[in-house]
Design brief:
Elements: H1 2-9, H2 13-25, H3 35-44, H4 48-61, H5 82-90
Length: 100
């Protein structure tokens, strides 16, 4: 997962895209990523549907860092999406108004 986040920080979408199959294969294993991180990477790649699939997986796994979607800038691009708002409601979180 470290290599994927380095590629993310370098805005290397193709690098991240190449790593996704291997990352998906090892989600949840020690020293690998979790479902929330996968969601963020898919949002980075512009694949919102896959991103929301992984957000739902994170929710079903009760990943503790899922709460970070309320403030993590990795999720800024999907805050207006009804699926994001629905998840926030299910978690009992409120969202500050979107700044345009």
């Amino acid at each position: 997962m470290t290599d994927a986040f380095m590629a993310f920080l370098q805005d290397d979408r193709e690098g991240v895209r190449r790593m996704m199959p291997q990352l998906e294969e090892h989600v949840g294993e020690p020293f690998s990523g979790n479902a929330l991180q996968m969601a963020g990477l898919y949002f980075f790649l512009g694949e919102s549907d896959k991103g929301f699939e992984w957000l739902e997986e994170s929710y079903s796994r009760r990943e503790s860092d899922l709460l970070s979607i309320a403030v993590d800038d990795m999720f800024d691009g999907v805050r207006a999406d009804p699926r994001y708002q629905s998840l926030m409601n299910r978690m009992g979180l409120t969202q500050a108004p979107l700044v345009q």
